[in-house]
Amino acid sequence: MELVDGLPGGRAVMGVEQEGEFMWLADRHHVTPQARDEFVEQLQRIVREGWWVQNWPGAR
Helical H runs in the chain? Predict the structure, then answer.
């Protein structure tokens, strides 16, 4: 997750997919560093436990 200075439409958090990558962007004016850390922790948990799987063509 990356903190940025602003997102379209005033969003606080937004997922962006590009060329085999998925990145979460968070507006630093709406998301505290602690909230970001907790969000990343939960994302890592759902990936680790197999609840989220990316399936891009050609990716292993």
Answer: 33-48
Tens of pLDDT, residue by residue over 30-55, are 998 899 899 899 989 998 998 887 77
Spatial contact of 43 and 24, defined as CB atoms under 8 Å apart: yes
User: Closest Cα partner for 24 from 38, 34, 36, 8?
Assistant: 36
What 8-state DSSP symbol labels residue 4? Answer: E
Q: Are 1 and 36 in contact (CB under 8 A)?
A: yes
The answer for residues whose C-beta is within 8 angstroms of residue 39's C-beta and 6 or more apart is: 1, 13, 24, 26, 31
